Amino acid sequence: MTIQEIAARFDELAQQEKWFDIQEELFADDVKSIEPPHSPFLRNVEGIEAVRKKGDDLMSIVEELHHAYTSAPVVAGRHFAVSRETDLTLQGIGRVKQNEIMLYEVKDGKIVSEQFFY
């Protein structure tokens, strides 16, 4: 798949909130997931199993999704980026509103890294 095809498929699935399908279909086995240094509870992980667990762990504390929006991807070279807005109630934390940029790197037809800026 080309980066344009990957970005288009990512967008299709993101608009349906199918984040685990994105991981299964588009991520490389050795994918890296990078959080900002100030992240209160999410950490950097490497490898598809660790990325899945990170997602599972986050979803296990989501009590309610109030709002979610993901922009269309912007493609440049081997990267594409989307903006993401969420409004969630998290168990033990309360209501959290977040705006972020999500940057993805593609190599050999797979997403090899995701990096979050918030």
Short description:
The protein contains 3 helices and 7 strands, in the order H-H-E-E-H-E-E-E-E-E. It is of the alpha+beta class and 118 residues long.
Description:
The chain has 118 residues and is an alpha+beta fold. It has one domain: Nuclear Transport Factor 2, Chain: A (Roll), CATH 3.10.450.50. Helix content is 29%, strand content 47%. The protein has helices at residues 3-15, 19-26, 48-60; strands at residues 27-34, 45-46, 62-70, 74-76, 79-90, 94-107, 110-117. Strands 1, 2, 3, 4, 5, 6 and 7 form a 7-stranded mixed sheet that branches. A hairpin with a 2-residue loop joins strand 6 and strand 7 (110-117). The longest helix is centred in the N-terminal third of the chain and has 13 residues, at 3-15. The protein is globular. The model has no long low-confidence stretch (mean pLDDT 97).
